[in-house]
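Review form for a predicted model. The reviewer records the input and the model, then writes brief findings.
Reviewer: anonymous (R2)
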Amino acid sequence: MSDNQYKEITRVTTHVLQEMKERGENISMLTAYDYSMAKILDEAKIDVILVGDSASNVMAGHMTTLPITLDQMIYHAASVIRAVYRALVVVDLPFGSYQGNSLEALNSAIRLMKEAGAHAVKMEGGSEILESVTRILSAGVPVMGHLGLTPQSIYKFGTFEVRAKEEAEAAKLIEDATLLAEAGCFAIVLEKIPAKLAAEVARRVKVPIIGIGAGGDVDGQVLVLHDILGITKQFSPRFLRRYMNLYDDILDAVSRYIEDVKLGDFPNEKEQY
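Model under review:
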C-alpha cells in the first residue's frame, strides 16, 4: 500500500467506537489469527479484529482456551497487525497472564503492545480483576472487558450454558459492567447471556457493548471467523450464523487435487515450464 493510500484510510480507534455507539451505528467485530485472513477482514472494512485466545481451539486444536501462552498470542497478534491498516486490533490476554497479579498483568499487556503492536487488550472478569484492569489502564493501554460466559473460567463454571439467568448473577454482571466502564474500559464483550439483560447493560453503560450470543439490542456483534465461514463444523450454537461452508468446499478442492495428481492430470502442458 502506498503512503497516499494509507493516508486516505480512517483508522478505527476507541474514540471512533464510542462515537458509533452514540449515533446508534452497530459495531462489527470478528476474530483473526493470521496475516492472510486479517488482510481480507481489513479490506472488507471490519471495525474491530479480535486476536482471540480462541486460537487455542481453532488453530491449535485444544478443547479449551486455557493452554495458549502469551508468547503464542504475541505471534498471532503480530501476524494480524502486519496485515491491518484500518481496523482496531484487540488482543486477548491469555489465561494465567493477568489473574491474581496486577504487576504481571501490566507486564503481559506491555509485551502485547510492544512486541506484537496490539492496539488494545481484552480481559475476562469483573470486580475480581479490577486491580489488574486499573493498573494496565494507568499505563495508557486500552482495555476491553469481557463478562458473561468467560471461557477462561470454564472449569470454574463447569458448563458452556447461558450465564446470568438467575437474578443474583444478573445483578453482579450489571455491577461488573458498570465497574469496568467507570474504571476506563473502552468497550465490553457480553457472551452468552439473556438478550434482555444484555440490552439493559447496553442502556445503562456508556461504553460500547459487543455481544456474542447476547441478542441484537447491544452496540455490536462479534463471532469467530472460522465459525461463520463454516471451517469448523462441530460448533453450532444458536447464536451462530454460517455465511459459507468452507469445510466441504476445501475438502472437495483438495480431493480433486489429489485425484488429478494420482491420475497424472496435474500438471498439464500449460502448467509447466
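Findings: Residues 37 and 226 are 10 Å apart (CA to CA).
Further findings: The chain has a mean pLDDT of 94.
Recommendation: see findings above.
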